[in-house]
Predict the 3D structure of the following.
Amino acid sequence: GIYWIDMRDPDPNNWNMGTQSTHIGLAGPLAWCMVDDDILFLDQSGQLNAISRITPETYAAQNVSDKKQMRDFIANNIDTTRLWDARMVYYAYKREVHIALTGTGSTVNNRRLVVDLNQPGNPRFRWADRDTCTALWLQQDSSKIERPFIGDNTGRIYRLDYDSKVKGSSGYNATFQTAHTDLSHLDPALATRSKNGHFIDLTYESVGAYYLYIDVYWDEMFEATYTARMGASSGGFPYTFPFAFAQRGRLQHTRVRITGSGRRFSMVCRNPNANEDFKLSAAWLGFTPGDERFD
């Protein structure tokens, strides 16, 4: 259950205790954190809840996880018998909640669920399997900003949210995948039609002359891996200064030719190399609907 104590009176003898709910409770002693104007916590099933949504009548009110259909993902990817060891902190500088969890088949917290709260009413989730997080806490850096730190099961301590894309001296895979979609949200008629892929158009901010690797899937089947350059060539500038040229905006575009066809499309964008990052603003799929034939 969830209970509260009214401590507004300076005399402890006048404090009052009440019941928030007897139908839902906390997964573990460290499975909660305060955010801007609320308290977030994990319940006994590993779902993320906001205390402001809990009432004495609450049995299964829509929680924060449900807002982005994360219930099944969380249930299928964590060991719920080890929720007692879950840890949570609120990284206020970037308005992110970091949650250390035990992945399926593990005996330590080796998964991190991060919830981005920068868009009110629209929490955005991401999943990290890079680190072992037996400990998770906040600590001030030299700029007096509280940053998230982790301690692993070998006694090593790491600071998260570093400018360099390395762990120790090694790179790690930064990746995301779009949903397998039939594009019927654009036109319901597309749900039953095959799509012939032609290109992927990317809008990006250049952070270096690096490559983005794009794995294309049609109907849940891998088709091919393509590469897109995320910046200008690293070769030397061929002119002598002073030299005047037109100012370009921060956002740039590139187009990658693709092949394959199917009803449903998905792509995985990734880069596994040390100190190579990417910043995408938008991605567009160029395709033509296939012919419809009836036997």
